[in-house]
Specification:
The complex is a heterodimer of chains A (506) and B (161). Chain A is an all-alpha fold and 506 residues long. Chain A contains 22 helices and two strands. Chain B has 161 residues and is mainly alpha-helical. Helix content of chain B is 68%, strand content 5%. In chain B, α4 runs antiparallel to α5 and α5 runs antiparallel to α6. The chains are: A mainly alpha (506), B mainly alpha (161).
Chain lengths: 506, 161
C-alpha cells in the first residue's frame, strides 16, 4: 500500500501543468536528438543543463530524464530509415531494422520498435519503483569503503566497455579524476591545481567540460567530413505490426526487457551494452539465426526493448546510491547537485515528492513518446532532411549560450572551447571522452570516500577487502574490477571484449 | 587503418607521441601530489590521491608507449588524411575570437557575426537563408534569456542588448 500511496504522491507532482510541459519538452528533445545522428543524449543534456536552473528541481530533473529515455525511442527511427544510428544504443537496430525498411517493412519495424520500447520502459518503471526503496534501505548501511569500491568498479566497467585500447580508456579515467580534484580540497580546504585563478577555486564546471567534449568536439569532428545521408524515400505505411510480427516479437521484447533492465543497473553498463547483449541473445536462441542481418523483426524488438529497459534500470544506482552508472547519469547527478540535492539512500525518505515525481513523470513521458513516435513519425522523417550546414552552427551557438548562462562568466566559454579542441584531438588519437567525464564526476566522491575509509580504519587497507558486515560488497567489487583489468591481457578474451566495446558518448 | 599509414618506432608515430605526452602528464600529476602533501595512509593529505593517480597515469601511458613501439601506430598525416581540417581550424579560431570579444562587444554584436560566419564557413548556406537565420536565432535567444528568463547577458561597450 505504501508504494501505491507514494505513486499517487508522485503523480500529484508529475501531473502539475508545469511538470507536464517540462516532461514533454524533455521527451520531445530526446526524440529529436535520438533522430538526428551525431547528437546524442549526452550533448543534448549538457546543452540543457543550465536551463534546469530556471525551474524547480522536479521540473529540471523530469526534463533531463525525459531527454535520456526519449533519445532511446528516437534513435531507432534513424537506424531503420537511414542505416545510421541516431545514438549509440541504436547501433544494433540498424542491422535488421534497415533491412526490413529496404524490404518495404519500415512501418512494422518502427512500430515494433516504439511499442516494444513502451512495454520495456513501463516494465522498467515498475521494477524501479519496487527495487529502489529496498536497495536504498540497504545502501544506508554502506560505508566509505563500499562506496569507493563501487565507484572503482563503475569506472573499470566503463573503461572495459569503451571502444579501442583499454589502457587509453583507463588513462582518460585518471585524467578525469585529476580534473575533478581541481579546486579546494573538501577535507583540508587547500586549493589544488588552480594556478592562481579564482575561477578554478570551486573546480572546473561540469557544463563547460561536457559541452566541450561532446558538443563542440562532435561538431569539429563532423565538419571535417562531407556528410551524406540516404533517407529512405518510400512512403511508410501500416505502422502497427501484424499478428505474425507480434508472435515473433513477444519473446524478444520480454527477454530484452529483463536483460536490459539488469544490465542497466550495473555500474558502467547501460543502454548500449544492453542492446548488443539482447541482439546476441536473440540470435543465439533463434531456431533460424541465419535470418538475422536480413530483416528479422526479433533483431529490432529485442535490442529496442533492452535499451529502453536499461535506461530505466540506470536510474537505480543513481537514485539509491548516489553513484551514476554511466555518463548520462553523471549529467543527471550534475543537475541534482546544481539544485543543491544529493541523490542517494536518503533521497527517497527526505525528498519523496522528487523521487516519486520523477518516476511518475516517466510513466507520462512513455505515453507521450508512444504518441510522438507512432502517429507523428512523418515529422521525424522530415527532420532527418535538416541540412547539417545549418545544424552545426546552431549547435555551436547554443553550446556557447548554454555555457555562459550556467555561470555568467566568459571564462567557462574558454574552458568549453579548450575541452572542445581537446575532445576533437582525443578522438583523432583514439581516446574516448566517456571515461573522462564519468571519472570527472566521480573523482571528488572517490577521493573523499577513500580518504574517509582510510582515516576510519586508521590506515588499515584490509578495510576494503575483509568480508565483515557489508564489506563483501566492497571485496566483490574490487575483485570484479581486477578481473576486468586482467581480461584484456588474455588474447582470447581480448577479442570478446572488442566485440562488446561501445561508444557510450555518441 | 592501412599499413601504409602506419609507423613503428618513428617520430611521426602518433601513438608513440600520445603515450609520451601521457607520461609527462602523469609525472606532472605525481609532482603535484607530492607538492600538495601526501600525508600518511592513516591520515591522507591533499596530494595523496593525486600522487597515486599520477602513478597509474604513468603506468597506462607507458603501456600505450610500449604498444606504439612494438605494434606501430598511425602517422600524424594519416589521421587528417582526406579531411577538411582547415574548416576545423577556422571554426576553432572563430570561437576564440568570439570569446575574446564577447564581454567587450556584448551578446548581440558577437553572436550575430559568429553565426553568420559559421553558416558561411562550414558548408556555405545561401546568403538569403544565412542572414535572416544569423539575425533571428541570436535575437530570439537574447529575448528568451534576457526578457523571459531574466538572465544577465553582456551588452558591451556600445550598450546594445
Amino acid at each position: 500500500m505504501d508504494v501505491l500511496a507514494n505513486v499517487a504522491q508522485g503523480f500529484g507532482v508529475a501531473l502539475q501543468p508545469v511538470n507536464i510541459i517540462y516532461c514533454f519538452i524533455g521527451v520531445f528533445i530526446g526524440t529529436l536528438v535520438g533522430v538526428l545522428p551525431g547528437i546524442g543524449p549526452v550533448s543534448a543534456m549538457s546543452l540543457l543543463l543550465p536551463v534546469t536552473l530556471s525551474g524547480t528541481p522536479e521540473s529540471g530533473i523530469i526534463m533531463m530524464a525525459g531527454i535520456y529515455y526519449g533519445s532511446m525511442y528516437g534513435g531507432s527511427t534513424t537506424s531503420i530509415l537511414v542505416n545510421i544510428p541516431g545514438e549509440a544504443a541504436s547501433v544494433v537496430t540498424c542491422i535488421d531494422g534497415h533491412q526490413m525498411a529496404k524490404q518495404g517493412r519500415a512501418g512494422p519495424a518502427l512500430g515494433i520498435s516504439a511499442l516494444g520500447s513502451f512495454a520495456a520502459g513501463t516494465f522498467a518503471l515498475v521494477a524501479l519503483m519496487l527495487i529502489a526503496p529496498t536497495l536504498a534501505a540497504l545502501a544506508v548501511r554502506f560505508g566509505p569503503a563500499e562506496y569507493f569500491s563501487l565507484m572503482v568498479l563503475g569506472l573499470v566497467v566503463l573503461t572495459f566497455l569503451t571502444q579501442g585500447s583499454m589502457a587509453k580508456a583507463l588513462f582518460m579515467a585518471c585524467i578525469g579524476v585529476v580534473l575533478g580534484l581541481i579546486g579546494l580540497d573538501s577535507i583540508t580546504a587547500q586549493p589544488r591545481l588552480t594556478f592562481g585563478r579564482l575561477e578554478l577555486i570551486d573546480g572546473i564546471g561540469l557544463v563547460p567540460v561536457v559541452m566541450g567534449l561532446f558538443g563542440v568536439a562532435e561538431v569539429l569532428s563532423n565538419i571535417e567530413q562531407v556528410i551524406k545521408r540516404d533517407v529512405l524515400t518510400t512512403k511508410i505505411t501500416q505502422l502497427l505490426p501484424n499478428k505474425e510480427d507480434w508472435k515473433a516479437s513477444a519473446g524478444p521484447i520480454s527477454r530484452g526487457t529483463i536483460l536490459g533492465f539488469f544490465l542497466g543497473i550495473l555500474p558502467g553498463g547501460g543502454a548500449v551494452v544492453a542492446s548488443f547483449a539482447a541482439y546476441a541473445l536473440e540470435k543465439r536462441i533463434s531456431k533460424t539465426p541465419e535470418r538475422f542481418g536480413h530483416g528479422a523483426i526479433e533483431g529490432v524488438a529485442g535490442p529496442e526493448a533492452a535499451n529502453n529497459a536499461a535506461a530505466g534500470g540506470a536510474f537505480i544506482p543513481l537514485m539509491t546510491l548516489g553513484i551514476p552508472p554511466n555518463v548520462v547519469m553523471a549529467l543527471l547527478l550534475g543537475a541534482f547537485v546544481i539544485h543543491g540535492l544529493q541523490p542517494g539512500p536518503l533521497m527517497i525518505t527526505q525528498n519523496p515528492q522528487l523521487f516519486w515525481g520523477i518516476i511518475a513523470s516517466m510513466y507520462i513521458g512513455n505515453v507521450m513518446l508512444l504518441i510522438l513516435n507512432l502517429p507523428l513519425i512523418g515529422m521525424w522523417v522530415q527532420l532527418l532532411k535538416l541540412p547539417y550546414n545549418v545544424l552545426f552552427p546552431m549547435i555551436l551557438l547554443f553550446t556557447i549560450i548554454g555555457v555562459y548562462c550556467s555561470s555568467n562568466n566568459v571564462f567557462d566559454v574558454y574552458v568549453m572551447i579548450a575541452f572542445g579542441v581537446i575532445g576533437y584531438v582525443m578522438r583523432k588519437f583514439g581516446y574516448e571522452p566517456a571515461p573522462l567525464v564519468l571519472a570527472f564526476v566521480l573523482g571528488p566522491m572517490l577521493e573523499n570516500n577513500l580518504r574517509k575509509a582510510l582515516i576510519l580504519s586508521q590506515g588499515d587497507l584490509t578495510t576494503f577487502i575483509l568480508p565483515l558486515n557489508l564489506r563483501w560488497i566492497s571485496a566483490s567489487c574490487l575483485v570484479l574490477a581486477l578481473l576486468l583489468l586482467i581480461v584484456p591481457l588474455l588474447p582470447s578474451l581480448r577479442k570478446k571484449r572488442e566485440l562488446v566495446a561501445l561508444d557510450e558518448g555518441a | 587503418m592501412s599499413d601504409a599509414g602506419k609507423a613503428g618506432l618513428r617520430l611521426n608515430n602518433s601513438e608513440l607521441w600520445g603515450g609520451l605526452v601521457g607520461l609527462v602528464l602523469g609525472a606532472l600529476v605525481i609532482w603535484a601530489g607530492i607538492k600538495f602533501n601526501l600525508g600518511t595512509v592513516n591520515d591522507p593529505g591533499s596530494g595523496f590521491v593525486l600522487f597515486y593517480v599520477g602513478i597509474l597515469m604513468c603506468l597506462f601511458a607507458a603501456s600505450i608507449t610500449f604498444a606504439a613501439m612494438t605494434e606501430g601506430g598511425p602517422t600524424f598525416g594519416s589521421l587528417w588524411k582526406g579531411t577538411r581540417w582547415r574548416k576545423t581550424l577556422v571554426v576553432i579560431a572563430s570561437l576564440l575570437v568570439f570569446a575574446r570579444a564577447f564581454d567587450d562587444l556584448g551578446f548581440l554584436l558577437t553572436t550575430i557575426p559568429l553565426l553568420l560566419f559559421l553558416l558561411r564557413a562550414i558548408d556555405p548556406v545561401r546568403w538569403t537563408v544565412a542572414i535572416p537565420l544569423a539575425v533571428l536565432a541570436p535575437l530570439g535567444s537574447w529575448w528568451v534569456l534576457k526578457r523571459l528568463l531574466l538572465i544577465q547577458l553582456p551588452s558591451g561597450i556600445f550598450n546594445i542588448g
